Amino acid sequence: MFLGKDLLAWLVLAFGAAMCVGNVLAVVRPPQKVAEGSLPQAPRSRSFAMAAVGFVAALWALLSLVS
Question: What is the model's pTM?
């Protein structure tokens, strides 16, 4: 099989971790320059909710790979 039999778990781990880290960094370090029509800072509640979803997905994938 292409890239092993655990390809789906690896992809979920990568996307979940990126989703978690990206949303936390969007809240912690807002952009220096704000483009026209964009928010000066990321919405905190939505960003933390999406970070939690990414964390759960990454944790689930990691536990699937370990067991």
Answer: 0.84
